[in-house]
Write a structure and sequence with these properties.
Number of helices: 20
Largest sheet: 2 strands, antiparallel
Structural class: mainly alpha
Number of domains: 3
Strand order of the largest sheet: 1-2
């Protein structure tokens, strides 16, 4: 890191904008709203601000530190971590990791994202050390690096998958599934009895990727019933690994359970059956289910609904009963009904593949061919000209 002549206000703006853009990217990266071109535009702006901080050298680091001192939030930590790792500066990396402790679990996610945006060669001096240390948090960072960059650590993964720390085991088992490491199937199946719901769900996910969905389903079903914060992810993997007729029956049962109605409604589009649209339109008239019904519709059609008037970002547009809703955009039932009745259903439009669609397609491909590693759908970036 070097000191160069800089304009403080511009460097500070780079630090602020980089944190904001990453937060937006994190919110949308696996979602149904944006596609890879939209994310590419965010990425290009994010990279421009990160490169501006790096070009500023010491002033860039100090601006990022000052920003984190004022706002100890995930976005600011991401910027610190990315700068430190891209500079491959051990002292700065340690500083960023230590700063992450104050941000909690969200801080770990920020550092993991910084790892994902750092080239392998810059990470090489750190990953082996992280994996060899007795510090479970650092081992988790090492496993995040392997996951994001799809690197197989070989025999070492056996020890990590049976580590004493549940978070280390969870990440090691997830990596085993993503890499198609069937030699680690015993450890994956052992994880189905893990001590936390997150560990058990990660093991179930890995088992499904390795062709052992039958063993995973009872665990997934229990998580759906008992862990409301994990239910949506559990329902998704359950439906993707169950034959269509049986999956529809399974989901129908969950639609009748009050605590699962929202998550189950949001997942119904995974079947790809447009005949459910009249039912979804009726659910769009219910404040509890309107957002979930909109998510399901997005799964049904390869349509960029951002180019239509079928959704609104103002809940008040839907009536007084919807005014207190925090989620958006929300489908406007009457407009959706007219669109559907006119028989459009997405025909005549350029196919739109959201980031969620890319993720689901990658999962389906890996589940269908258990000897094939899970594609890193987030690496299919295009960087279009900055508009």
């Amino acid at each position: 890191m070097h000191r160069v002549a800089t304009i403080a206000a511009i460097v500070d703006q780079h630090a602020e904008d980089a944190a904001f853009l990453w937060l937006r990217r994190r919110r949308e990266i696996d979602g149904p709203i944006l596609d890879e071109t939209d994310i590419g535009r965010i990425d290009q702006r994010l990279e421009a601000n990160l490169e501006g901080l790096m070009a500023a050298g010491k002033a860039g680091w100090e601006a990022a530190q000052a920003r984190f001192a004022d706002y100890a939030e995930p976005g600011e930590l991401f910027v610190l971590g990315t700068l430190a790792m891209r500079w491959s500066d051990a002292k700065l990396v340690t500083s960023a990791i230590d700063a992450g402790v104050s941000v909690g679990e969200a801080g770990f996610s920020s550092l993991s994202a910084a790892i994902a945006r750092t080239p392998r060669d810059n990470l090489r001096p750190f990953v082996a050390q992280w994996l060899d240390t007795s510090d479970a948090r650092l081992r988790c960072l090492g496993l995040s690096a392997l996951w994001h960059h799809r690197v197989d650590p070989g025999p070492r993964l056996h020890d990590l998958a049976s580590h004493s720390d549940a978070n280390v085991r969870r990440r090691a088992v997830r990596l085993a599934g993503g890499l198609g490491r069937r030699d680690l199937l015993p450890a994956v199946l052992a994880g189905l009895d893990g001590e936390t719901a997150r560990e058990r769900l990660a093991a179930a996910f890995a088992a499904c990727l390795l062709g052992e969905a039958r063993s995973a389903h009872p665990v997934i079903d229990k998580i759906v019933l008992t862990e409301t914060d994990q239910a949506e992810a559990a329902i998704e993997i359950r439906l993707l690994t169950t034959p269509p007729k049986a999956a529809k029956g399974w989901l129908q049962t969950r639609l009748g359970q009050p605590l699962l109605r929202v998550a189950a409604t949001a997942s119904i589009g995974l079947f790809g059956d447009p005949s459910v649209m009249p039912w979804l339109i009726e659910k769009m008239r219910e404040p509890e289910l309107v957002f979930a019904a909109g998510l399901a519709m997005r799964d049904l059609f390869e349509v960029d609904f951002n180019d239509t008037d079928l959704f609104t970002i103002d809940p008040a547009d839907l009536g007084k009963a919807f005014e207190s809703l925090n989620h958006s955009p929300l489908p406007v039932a009457d407009r959706v009904a007219a669109w559907w009745d006119e028989g459009r259903g997405g025909r005549g439009r350029t196919p739109f593949h959201s980031m969620r669609r890319l993720r689901l397609d990658a999962l389906r491909a890996a589940i269908a061919a258990t000897d094939t590693p899970l594609t890193d759908w987030r690496r299919t970036r295009r960087f279009p000209a900055w508009m």
